[in-house]
Design brief:
Length: 286
């Protein structure tokens, strides 16, 4: 049998450093997952021996990680807004940048008259349900509809809704390019849509370009296809004082601002930066 210390050392040798990964952290998280322990435990018990089957599985996962396979798919876990989410292959992994979008919506609600009334929120392209569940968790006066075209995404979102006991979230399988909302109206529409230009998807890091779903990445020829449709849909389903907030690529905020402006819907448009200083969220107010 090998020790925790030996596994961590071997794992770092296996996992090569590149974009989107930190070998030292990755191998620790893999071993934490296999042992059901935290990183402090690994540090304090370096000489502890690990069962052979667990060690074999560790080496397999380290090799897989070195091939660019997302760690979150191996552990079926990703933290977002202080909440643990179940993720699986075929679902976009929630990113820290997207927390900027959630925080923006929460701030709007908590600093306006919205905080004192019942709200209906629509999350377009919900994926794992990270945005929808987070908003429902922090905004108790909201009922959130988590919409996605992907059956797999809807199933994953449902797992996270149940896991976090969110009674105020429902799922809706549908395509925003064809779905008829009938008489449904929403106070807030939020989305982290596909926004990568079709031709540049192959240039993304392995973790994203090879393993994450193209459906959640491909924003069409100019990366802006979904923003145009979302604004069009918003124009049909908004209440009188509604808000539309979307995540954008780091260099797309000006283009999305223009799409919002040309719609003639909004009296005010704001842009917010993520923690890296990139323009990340565009919000339109009626």
């Amino acid at each position: 049998m090998v020790t925790i210390e030996k596994l961590l050392k071997d794992g770092i040798e296996i996992v090569k450093e590149r974009d989107y990964n930190n070998p030292f952290l990755d191998v620790q998280l893999i071993l934490c997952h296999l042992l059901s322990k935290d990183r402090v435990y690994l540090h304090l018990n370096r000489k502890e021996e690990v069962e052979e089957k667990t060690a074999e599985r560790f080496y397999e996962m380290a090799e897989k990680r070195n091939q660019g396979y997302p760690l979150q798919y191996m552990t079926n876990s990703q933290e977002f807004m202080g909440i643990d989410f179940y993720v699986q292959e075929g679902i976009l992994v929630p990113r820290p940048d997207t927390e900027t979008l959630v925080e923006k919506v929460i701030k709007i609600v908590n600093t306006t008259e919205m905080k004192d009334r019942y709200l209906r929120i629509l999350d377009i392209g919900t994926g794992s349900g990270a945005i929808a569940v987070s908003l429902a968790y922090y905004l108790k006066n909201a009922c959130v509809t988590a919409m996605d075209i992907s059956k797999e995404a809807i199933e994953t979102a449902a797992v996270n809704i149940e896991k976090n006991n969110m009674k105020n979230v429902t799922t809706l399988e549908g395509d925003i390019f064809t779905h008829a909302f009938s008489d449904e109206k929403f106070d807030i529409v939020v989305s982290n849509p596909p926004y990568i230009k079709k031709e540049t998807i192959g240039e993304l890091p392995l973790e994203v370009s090879v393993y994450e779903p193209k459906l959640a990445l491909d924003g069409g020829e100019d990366g802006l296809e979904y923003y145009r449709q979302i604004v069009k849909v918003f124009g049909e389903i908004h209440t009188k004082t509604a808000v539309l907030a979307v995540e954008t690529g780091h260099d797309q905020a000006l283009d999305v601002n223009e799409i919002f402006s040309k719609s003639g819907l909004f009296r005010k448009i704001e842009t917010d930066k993520d923690l890296g200083g990139n323009d990340r969220v565009v919000t339109g107010f009626l």
